[in-house]
Structures are given as structure tokens and as C-alpha cells.
Amino acid sequence: MNHPSKKIRGLYAITDSQLLADGKLLPYVEAALQGGARLLQYRDKSTDESRRLREAQALRDLCERYGAALIINDDAELAARLGVGLHLGQTDGSLGAARALLRRGALIGVTCHASLELAEAAAREGASYLAFGRFFDSQTKPGAPAASLELLQQARARLSLPLVAIGGVTLDNAPALIGAGADLLAVVHGLFGADSAAEVKRRAQAFSDLFASH
Fold this sequence. Notes:
Layout: E1 10-14, H1 25-34, E2 39-42, H2 49-66, E3 69-73, H3 76-82, E4 85-88, H4 95-101, E5 108-111, H5 116-125, E6 129-133, H6 149-158, E7 163-166, H7 174-180, E8 184-187, H8 189-192, H9 197-212
Parallel strand pairs: 1-2, 1-8, 2-3, 3-4, 4-5, 5-6, 6-7, 7-8
Helix pairs in contact: 1-2, 1-9
């Protein structure tokens, strides 16, 4: 499979260690996968390497069961160890170095903020998908939104890789993002900020249904 990224479309669930504390990580993630999440990013900035490995292994097994892809945030060595994908921010090291570590064909996504120039550079370097944001005010990274629907439309016209929209994505604003060209919607609070696994599954299904109707 030379271009696994060409087929990616749908909900991109991103974990949050505070939202998913107290035993919620695995049941809430499984609920998101049951609801149709296609990608799952494990995002944990702690220094507890043994716990991170244990959690990432469990998430990989869940993703395999549901036919989704696991992406590790900013830890190429962990991604390589588990044989899964990687997400790089602009300060997380070189895509080329990461590509050399990971298995052939591994998904590597890159944060492009609100910059077409960064996106074009990442595409040239071999990124699997390009993530733009923040589109709306976000609880995860508060501050003024930087990315616009116009930026997404321009990126869609100029770039053939899958485009991810992130930052304050909700069921209300999701249709506009999909309409402007987003292939994937990256959601944290809008998915996992729920009081039960059943509610997470319901939200995931609702996001997934939006893609089916576009």
C-alpha cells in the first residue's frame, strides 16, 4: 500500500491526558472507535515512559480491532517501536529523520498552523497528511483562531494530500469545514469532553455521519 493516506477520511480522535484520566482512556477511546473514528492520536506529554508505552500498546490493539490507525504525538521512537504512525509539530524535529525511523509507508502528519507555505514544504518532504488550525476557539489551546475556511479552500485547490482541521471543532461547525475541503476533523473536547462512553460513541457516530452525507 504505497499511499495509505489517500484513503483517510473522517473523524480523527485525539486523546487528552486530563480529560481521559481516572480510567477513562481505554473505554472512551473504544467508544470513539465504535462510533467510526478513523484515526486516533495518542497525545501525552508526561515523562512516565513505562505508562506511555503501556497505554500506547493498548490503544494500538484497540485501533487494530476496529480498523483504525494509531498516531503517536511527537515521539518517533515510540511510534517506531509500536509500528504505528507519528504526528509532528513544527518544533518536533525533521520529517525525514522520522521517516527513516518508522516502517515503510507509516503515516506521518505535520502541523501546518495557518500557513500554506508550511504545508507545501511538508508535502515536499513526504508528509502523509497536513493539519491546519486553529479554526475556532479551543479549550485545548486557547487563543484567537488563526486558520480560516478560505485557507482550507486554498489548500484543497493546491495540495492533493489529506487535510486535517483542528481547533475547537464541534458538530455545529464541522459541516462548514468538510464543505471547505477538510478530509479529517481532529476533535478533542468535542468528542471526549463527555460524561459517559455512550455519549462519546454517540458524538463519534454523529461526526462520522457528517462525512457520509458530504
